[in-house]
Specification:
Chain A: It is a multi-pass membrane protein. With 278 residues, chain A is mostly helical. Helices cover 79% and strands 0% of the residues of chain A. Chain A has one domain: MetI-like (MetI-like fold). Chain C contains 21 helices and eleven strands. In chain C, strand 1, helix 2 and strand 2 form a beta-alpha-beta unit. Classes of the chains: A mainly alpha (278), B mainly alpha (291), C mainly alpha (461).
């Protein structure tokens, strides 16, 4: 019993932190969604009020004005493809950085990771030139390439740590079994680095999903427009009508959250299983 | 003979990453570094001007000084409060109290929203007329509370800070990942020796996630150096140049056809980032295996 | 050791080639008809139709901001449809929507890649002047010389501005659309104001504001957010009445120094308006907020151009019947604000003959009397050299009709907006940024003038 009493302040504290974290993460979004069901007048007179009716008319209005489904599809294709390619190639490199030594390794790693410090805007012009030279202007492939490059530093950070924390005993056992380089990587190390890969993958997906600037400059027509770019049109389009503005924001935010909630299960499982492994 | 094959494999594994590095980073960065020393409007041929751009950038008026002051304060807040909060959440989640999955899931949600949408939401939240903050304060009895958050001093600085201060889920994820990787036996042995929970946290867990915390600090401080949206889409550096930062100076260069000037700002950003990396690496003695 | 690097670099090259190959394939299968997506060796946007196959239709893909929900789309898109219909089977223009404030950046980026669309509307001054210097803009003069009817409708000032060494690179304007002040007639009546704004002096304007305040209304819908548009327009009208002000505002040169008395007294006036005659949330207000305040009858006046007139009868934006309450007037002192000395539509060099012809056809189409009339009916303005404006006046919204009539009698001086004589950096960001400080009283008008001056000089060439 004594232990329990001693635990009480700690519990209050823990739950306090959890509640606070939950609220700051959810409340702004709940507010946006709730506001989308209120009239302009209700929004302006009392931001805390609860909508009187649940009217979805505004959503169908906004939906007919903009082709959200197509934007959603584009965002999804671009982000998923870029993430898959990126996780694969950075796993290859992360494996090397985590487990092998060669001259210039640290230099190369630092070179890769300081790229994090180069702001996207400053590289825009050379990258735009590159995409054009490859003939990829206004294609999803161009965007995929650019997004593949985005997560490099972060992915290498995470993946190097993941691979480094896999005991070398496994590799040595595999070598004795006569496994080649590729098999040691693919069959032994890769499964054990899954949690890191998922973490890196989720982060890269999110980055690609939300990227705005390059999506704006590298695509021309609506056929390749992604969701974040659509946001840019809202200020003009809905500025007089807060109900619509909130509804449009909801439509942009929601797919990302839904996808995340689906992947979330996967993230939790893999993180949990890596814990068992440890 | 065998060694040679390994080298080949290493090269093959690194190749795609090196290709990305060269195409999307090194060549663009080199362009940036070189043109930082030129007068270049982005259209005509660049003309070498030595350090002119740097002199102008740093000493033209107090904007650079203010940018550095803001960067310093924001970095400090990021390295302490921001990373501290993320780490705290990781430790709390690690206890797996009732509802921890829900909280972790929720904490991630702001990250899946694009910064363009997020800035718009925060503009709405801080709006004087119908925003949550001001109406909330007015509801609490301060009927005359009117602060145009992003447009007066010093409110703008704090309002911008609030748009990212608590959203430290990246740090939480990295630290949590490392916590999970600590072998169970270590804890069991410590608890058997009569260590209290606090002692386990203080003397075992914190040292073992040191690398993760350092990574978190690097990530969040560099995010401040390269941060653009949280300022450009809210206060735009105002009022006056109160919340200016170096990315805005870079942006000013671009919109005024002074790509050389812009790229000198970009160069300073890169140098600052490297400095941060070196300092944190030294301070935390990273790259040393802790167990 | 060195070997591994060599191998790595060889492999990365292979990787690159694969990427390139993939990209090429995707591109071929991905776009069938769009001419701008087809990469070409020369770099210029290669058309799907060339001069050798005249039977084929020329398709121009034009990025533009007057699309979607933009206020200008209401007229522009149907105009494109009419053009496409007239030249059916010969030319077709397709519009790609670009957000208003991203249009110029987009054009710049396209230019850097030599992928300029066949038709561009305006752009940053420095940009266009550089392009002219580089010889990258199509000279319209020889073509215009074959179209005397077209030349007749142009405004002389605009022709003068657009002519450089005998060449004409951007299309001169035929229509001027001065901005003025929209006012809420009901509020004016309740406050007992009878004198038309255009006949007031700024002292009388002040008294009118006081009267409105006494009657319980916020007199002015001002803003400090974005580029401070509505505030800037009202300030321009004041400056035009200051000694020397109109000359500065009529000059084609850019002004970099704002420390002279006329500027300082303008900034003083602006500070007074912001502090006394507008609501506290003007600080940080964006254009939409300012417009909203007027449309929802929370402010009595807003400075803006004729293109806003459609908003008053739009019930998603304003209460029903609001358009009945609105009047439109020139600014105090009979000031009209418009920039006819600006760059408008232009065509890049290096297009195929078919594309150039299509682009020219559109330039001409826009300037046909029928189209000009329709435009003025939709968005206001008047064409000094186009006969039969009465027809326009009878069809145009009564608000604009009145304004056009007033313009013929009360217009004392027509100037450019302050924004048009400032360098880009001041007009687009610094003015709004420092305006918040001016409104709060954190800086004096003198300090404000000094800071803007210093900022203006920073990027001066």
């Amino acid at each position: 019993m004594k232990v329990r009493v001693r635990e009480i302040p700690e519990r209050i504290f823990s739950y306090g932190v959890m509640l606070f974290t939950f609220l700051i993460s959810i409340f702004p979004l709940v507010w946006v969604v709730v506001s989308s069901f209120k009239t302009n007048k209700e929004i302006l007179s009392n931001p805390f009020s609860i909508p009187k009716t649940l009217d979805f008319q505004v959503y169908s209005d906004v939906f007919t004005q903009y082709n959200f489904l197509s934007y959603f599809k584009n965002s999804l294709i671009v982000a998923v493809t870029a993430t898959l390619i990126a996780v694969f190639i950075y796993s290859l490199a992360g494996y090397i950085f985590g487990k092998f030594d060669f001259r210039g390794k640290n230099f190369l790693f630092v070179l890769c990771t300081i790229t994090l410090l180069v702001p996207g805007y400053s590289r825009a012009q050379p990258i735009f030139a590159l995409i054009n030279k490859l003939g990829l202007y206004n294609t999803k492939t161009g965007l995929i390439l650019v997004y593949t490059s985005f997560g490099m530093a972060l992915a290498l950070f995470i993946l190097r740590l993941s691979f480094a924390s896999i005991p070398r005993d496994f590799d040595e056992a595999a070598i004795i079994d006569g496994a080649g380089f590729w098999r040691i990587f693919w069959n032994v190390n890769l499964p054990l680095a899954k949690s890191g890969m998922v973490t890196a993958g989720v982060l890269m997906f999110i980055q690609a999903w939300n990227e705005y600037f390059y999506a704006l400059v590298l695509t021309a027509d609506e056929a390749n427009r992604t969701l974040p770019v659509a946001v840019q049109f809202f200020n003009e389009a809905f500025s007089y009508n807060y109900t619509r503005l909130f509804a449009a924001l909801t439509l942009v935010i929601l797919p990302g959250i839904i996808i995340y909630l689906l992947v979330q299960e996967q993230v939790q499982n893999s993180v949990a299983s890596s814990g068992v492994k440890g | 003979m065998k060694n040679k094959w390994v080298k080949l494999w290493i090269a093959a594994f690194l190749a795609p990453t090196i290709a990305v590095l060269c195409l999307f980073y090194l060549i663009p960065i080199l362009t940036v570094l070189v043109t930082g020393f030129t007068d270049w409007n982005g259209m005509s041929k660049p003309v070498f001007v030595g350090f002119d751009n740097y002199v102008k950038l740093i000493s033209y008026d107090n904007t650079f000084l203010i940018s550095m002051k803001n960067l310093f304060l924001w970095s400090l807040i990021a390295a302490t409060a921001h990373v501290g909060f993320g780490t705290l959440v990781a430790f709390v989640l690690y206890k797996k109290r009732f509802g921890w999955r829900l909280v972790r899931g929720a904490f991630m949600i702001p990250m899946v929203i694009s910064s363009a949408a997020w800035a718009m939401i925060y503009n709405l939240i801080f709006n004087d007329e119908y925003g949550l903050i001001n109406n909330g304060v007015r509801k609490l009895g301060f009927g005359n509370f009117h602060v145009s958050w992003f447009y007066e001093s010093p409110a703008a600085f704090f309002a911008i800070t609030l748009t990212w201060l608590f959203y430290a889920v990246y740090v939480t994820l990295i630290v949590y990942n490392d916590l999970m990787a600590i072998p169970k036996e270590v804890h069991e042995a410590a608890l058997l020796d009569g260590a209290s929970e606090w002692q386990v946290t203080r003397f075992i867990n914190i040292p073992l996630v040191k690398n993760a915390i350092a990574t978190g600090i690097i990530l969040s401080v560099t995010a401040r150096i390269a941060g653009f949206e949280e300022v450009a889409l809210t206060s735009r550096g105002g009022p006056g140049n109160d919340t200016y930062n170096i990315t805005l100076m870079l942006y000013d260069g671009i919109v005024n056809y002074q790509h050389g000037y812009a790229n000198s700002a970009a160069t300073i950003m890169i140098l600052l980032g490297m400095l941060v990396m070196v300092i944190i690496n030294r301070a935390f003695k990273m790259n040393e295996r802790t167990y | 050791m060195k070997k591994s690097y060599k191998i790595a670099s060889v492999l990365s090259l292979c990787f690159l080639l694969i990427l390139t190959a993939c990209g090429g394939n995707k591109n071929n299968s991905g776009s069938q008809s769009s001419p701008s997506a087809t990469p070409s060796a020369s770099g210029s946007a290669s058309p799907s139709a060339s001069a050798s196959t005249p039977a084929e239709k020329v398709v121009l893909k034009i990025p533009h901001y007057k699309a979607g929900a933009n206020v200008g789309a209401k007229f522009f898109l149907p105009q494109i449809d009419r053009f496409n219909k007239k030249y059916e089977g010969q030319y077709e223009i397709q519009i790609e929507e670009v957000p208003d404030d991203k249009y110029r950046d987009k054009i710049k980026l396209l230019w850097q890649q030599k992928k300029l669309p066949a038709l561009v509307e305006s752009g940053d001054r420095e940009f266009i002047e550089q392009l002219i210097k580089n010889g990258e803009i199509y000279d319209l003069k020889p073509w215009l010389d074959t179209k005397p009817d077209l030349q007749k409708v142009f405004i002389e000032d605009s022709v003068k501005f657009n002519t450089q060494d005998g060449h004409i690179y951007t299309m001169p304007l035929a229509v001027t659309r001065p901005t003025g002040i929209y006012f809420n007639k009901e509020m004016f009546q309740k406050a007992g104001i009878t004198k038309p704004i255009s006949q007031m002096t700024f002292e009388e304007f002040d008294q009118a504001c006081e009267a409105l305040k006494k009657a319980g209304f916020t007199p002015l819908s001002l803003m400090t957010g974005e580029n401070g548009w509505t505030t800037m327009l009202l300030g321009t009208a004041f400056l035009a009445g200051q000694p020397g002000g109109a000359d500065v505002l009529k000059d084609t040169a850019i002004t970099y120094d704002y420390t002279s008395p006329m500027w300082v007294s303008t900034f003083t006036e602006i500070q007074k308006w912001l502090q006394k005659y507008s609501s506290p949330n003007a600080i940080g207000a964006k254009y939409a907020d300012a417009a909203n305040a007027f449309l929802n009858e929370k402010a009595a006046m807003i400075a803006n151009g004729p293109w806003m007139v459609g908003d008053f009868s739009d019930t998603t934006k304003a209460p029903a019947g609001f358009d009945q309450k609105v009047g439109f007037s020139l600014s105090p002192g009979g000031v009209g604000i418009d920039n006819v000395q600006g760059y408008s539509w232009w065509i890049p060099n290096g297009l195929s003959q078919g594309e150039t012809d299509a682009a020219l056809a559109f330039m001409e189409f826009r300037m046909t009397p029928e189209e000009l009339k329709q435009w003025m009916i939709a968005e206001g303005g008047f064409a000094p050299n186009l006969p039969a404006s009465d027809e326009v006046n009878s069809k145009v919204s009564p608000i604009l009709g009145e304004f056009n009539k007033q313009s013929t009698t009360d217009l004392k001086v027509l100037v450019k907006a302050m924004q048009d004589v400032w360098p880009n950096q001041i007009g687009q960001s610094e003015f709004g940024r420092y305006l918040a400080l001016l409104a709060k009283g954190s800086v004096t008008p003198e300090q404000f003038a000094k800071q803007l001056t210093q900022k203006a000089q920073q990027f001066k060439k």
